[in-house]
Structures are given as structure tokens and as C-alpha cells.
Design goal:
The chain is of the alpha/beta class. The chain has 10 helices and 10 strands. It has an 8-stranded parallel beta sheet with strand order 4-3-10-9-8-7-6-5. A hairpin with a 5-residue loop joins strand 1 and strand 2. Helix 1 runs parallel beside helix 10. The chain is globular, with a radius of gyration of 16 Å.
């Protein structure tokens, strides 16, 4: 059963992180986002995308699915050259943001400040974590979602839902104890529909994926498999 997080975001969700892959940059980011939109419409499964910062506006102006920033900084308007202003990504069309991805680690105090900023301006927050303890600590900051991703499995093709199912189920339980309103997603190594189904059976409300879709020879077919698996759980 779908749950509305904001006017444009609902779960269960397949959130595709484009990272800085060549296959998800510039015009290719737009092409990939349109594929994600097509699958979402065909299957009635929520699919979101997180393109690189310079591509947010390009993508958001072309598709109706939710667009996330890959990062924002805990700043407001002012003298912060080189930083990522939350209001700027929202103005570009982002409806949410990733926070603390394993490739962009932050201190807990910064995560707290960023989550507070997302709440101030109405961005959906997806905080990435690497284990149960960090997930529980992050849940206390009241983000919208926590995405658990053991870093050693990211990009390996070995899904955390199979290699370390206890991490996923344990994270769901730990987060619920701290704040039952926080939604848990699962990432790392998601490459097949059965990985998505396994993640949902372990109690999550979606997956955060990257190379399994972005670098696939046929992103449409893989994403369709993911969506079909999600719709059957």
C-alpha cells in the first residue's frame, strides 16, 4: 500500500542515484530519467531519480517523477562560495535530497543541521547510513527516510538484503524503536528484481540503487523487473 511522504513523493519507492557516471550525465541523465518515468507510469510504482547537481533543472523540467539532489550543505543564503544551497536545489526542481551517502560522508552534527534545513524549506530527506547503530542515531534526527547501505557491498552486485539480511531487518527494528515515522530504504548491490522483493520482505519501503540501473546495458528492462517485483510484494 502506497504512503504519501510529500505531494510528489510516495513509498514504496525505487530511488535511482545517477552518481557521476557517464551514463547519467547531461543528455544521458535526461534520457535515463525519461526511462525511469516511463517505467513508473507503466507499472504505477513510484520511481525517483537523483541526478548530479548541474542536471537537476534539466531533468526536473522534463519529467514528472520526483527528482532528488545528491547532496546539500547546512547553509542559508550568504557568503558560502562553492557550497550547495538547499533553496537552490529546490528552485531547480528537486523535491528531496540524499544526505550522508557513503561517498559523501558527514558528521552527525552536519546531518542534523541539513535535516533541519530540509524541514524548514520542504525538501524530503533521505539520510544514508552504514549500519544499525548509525541508522538508529540518525532516526533520532527525524529525517523522512533512512537508507541503509553497508559500504563494502556498494557496487559489488551482492545485495545487502541477501548478504546481510540481519542488517536490513535489524535496521528496520532499530529505527522503529527510535521513531516509527521514519521510513527505511535498502541499498547496496541491488541488481535484480528478487533483490528488491527481498528488501521489502525484510520490512523496508523501497530501495536506493545506482549502478544496477545506471550502468545496465538495458536500464528499462532492469528497472521494469525491479518495479514488477515491488508491485508483487
Amino acid at each position: 500500500m502506497a504512503t504519501q511522504i510529500s505531494s510528489k513523493v510516495q513509498v514504496p519507492i525505487i530511488l535511482v542515484n545517477f552518481k557521476t557516471y557517464a551514463e547519467g550525465t547531461g543528455k544521458k541523465a535526461l534520457e535515463l530519467a525519461k526511462i525511469c518515468e516511463k517505467v513508473g507510469k507503466e507499472t504505477d510504482v513510484s520511481v525517483g531519480v537523483a541526478p548530479q547537481l548541474p542536471d537537476i533543472s534539466l531533468v526536473a523540467n522534463a519529467v514528472s517523477i520526483p527528482v532528488f539532489s545528491q547532496h546539500i550543505d547546512p547553509i542559508s543564503y550568504g557568503s558560502f562560495t562553492g557550497h550547495v544551497l538547499p533553496e537552490a536545489v529546490k528552485a531547480a526542481g528537486a523535491v528531496g535530497t540524499l544526505i550522508n551517502h557513503s561517498e559523501r560522508r558527514l558528521k552527525l552534527a552536519d546531518i542534523d543541521a541539513i535535516v533541519s534545513r530540509t524541514q524548514e524549506i520542504g525538501l524530503v530527506s533521505v539520510v544514508c547510513s552504514n549500519n544499525m547503530d548509525v541508522s538508529a542515531a540518525v532516526a533520532g534526527l527525524r529525517p523522512d527516510m533512512v537508507a541503509v547501505e553497508p559500504p563494502e557491498l556498494i557496487g559489488t552486485g551482492i545485495p545487502v538484503s541477501k548478504a546481510k539480511p540481519e542488517v536490513v531487518s535489524g535496521t528496520v527494528e532499530a529505527v522503529r524503536r527510535v521513531n516509527p515515522d521514519v521510513i527505511v530504504l535498502c541499498g547496496a548491490g541491488i541488481t535484480r528484481g528478487e533483490d528488491v522483493a527481498a528488501a521489502l520482505r525484510l520490512g523496508t519501503k523501497g530501495v536506493l540503487v545506482a549502478s544496477g540501473i545506471v550502468k545496465a546495458k538495458d536500464p528499462y528492462s532492469v528497472l521494469l523487473e525491479f518495479a514488477d517485483a515491488m508491485s508483487k510484494v
